[in-house]
From TrEMBL:
Residues 108-131 have a biased composition (Polar residues). SUPFAM superfamilies: UBA-like (SSF46934). This is UBA domain-containing protein. The lineage of its organism: Eukaryota, Viridiplantae, Chlorophyta, Pyramimonadophyceae, Pyramimonadales. PROSITE patterns: UBA. Residues 1-43, 89-146 are annotated as: Disordered. Residues 18-28 have a biased composition (Basic residues). Residues 7-17, 91-106 have a biased composition (Basic and acidic residues). PANTHER family: NEDD8 ULTIMATE BUSTER 1, NEDD8 ULTIMATE BUSTER-1 BS4 PROTEIN.
Length: 207
């Protein structure tokens, strides 16, 4: 069973490699253009020409010009004038391919930038949240002592203000002159009672 699993794994791996190779060749074939008859460049014939030392682009140009005819392509490559024409054609086609890739890359970058610009920027909201976080932070010992002193001072000011208000209220109710008069009358009454008490004591002594 283990041997069968290993063999199956190897077959699957080989199949994946073949599939990747075919996809790569198809992508390359799409970039090589077509013959005058509208056919794709024959990749097998191109491999034969490249095995003779010609570049893939030049081999593809010869096959496009000959309509995928191997012998005609070889004749064109061996002729200096035709070879020069094919080189110019392959170079021009390569420049067009590069320009197309650059345009596609530029368009993709512009689309990505457009998408990024549509995403709301929350950095300002995060920055604005910092003061709130600082306000929610527990006060330090120095801040707590300063707060207590400020509170005590404020309470003392309020107590003093209340005392002043009470004094003013009493003053307005009785008047300062009335208060002084009441004190004088009490002193006079006390002295009079003391005088009466001394007179009574004298009378008793006389009898």
């Amino acid at each position: 069973a283990a041997v069968l699993l290993v063999e199956q794994r190897d077959r699957d791996s080989a199949e994946r490699q073949r599939a990747r190779h075919e996809r790569k060749r198809r992508r390359e074939q799409r970039g090589l253009g077509r013959t005058h008859q509208g056919k794709k460049v024959d990749m097998d014939l191109m491999d034969q020409l490249t095995s003779l030392g010609y570049s893939r682009q030049l081999s593809a140009a010869a096959l496009r010009q000959s309509g995928n005819q191997l012998d005609a392509s070889l004749d064109a490559l061996l002729d200096p004038v035709t070879n020069q024409i094919l080189q110019h054609s392959s170079e021009q086609m390569e420049r067009e391919r590069q320009g197309k890739r650059q345009r596609e890359s530029t368009e993709e970058g512009a689309q990505q930038e457009s998408l990024n610009s549509e995403v709301p920027d929350n950095r300002g909201q995060h920055n604005n949240s910092y003061p709130n976080e600082a306000a929610d932070r527990p006060p330090s010992n120095n801040e707590a002592r300063e707060h207590d002193l400020n509170t005590l001072s404020s309470n003392e000011e309020r107590d003093e203000e209340c005392e002043n208000q009470i004094a003013m209220s009493l003053g307005n109710s009785y008047g300062l002159s009335s208060y002084d008069m009441m004190v004088d009358e009490e002193d006079a009454i006390t002295e009079y009672l003391a005088y009466i008490s001394s007179v009574d004591s004298s009378n008793h002594n006389c009898t």
